[in-house]
Amino acid sequence: MPFVMRSKVSLGTGYGSQHSLEPAGLYATSPGFRLVAPSSPHDYVGLLNSAVRCEDPVYIMEHVELYKTEGPLPAGDLDYCIPFGKAKIVRPGSTLTVISYLWSLHLSREGD
Question: What is the pLDDT of residues 58-78, one digit of tens each?
Answer without folding.
Answer: 999 888 888 888 888 888 888
